# Entry
Amino acid sequence: MSKATVSRMLSRMEQKNLVRRKGNAEDARFKWIIMTAYSRKMIPDLKKAEEQLECTVLDGFSKKDKDVLLSCIAKMEHNLLKSNK
# Structure
């Protein structure tokens, strides 16, 4: 993801009062991205929605199937991270 894309995404999140950027006194190139109180209040609802989605998506999968799927996803993530270096 490009810096411009990340910046636009953060700007939209700031406009929606989900995060705020805070400068770093020690290094002006560095910015902290901080969740707002408004976004922190959303966490329980987001966790509940995540659990419901996971149940829907994995319905009918055996434990073995889930383990294989998660292993494959982890390998794909590793490959993507490796290719971005």
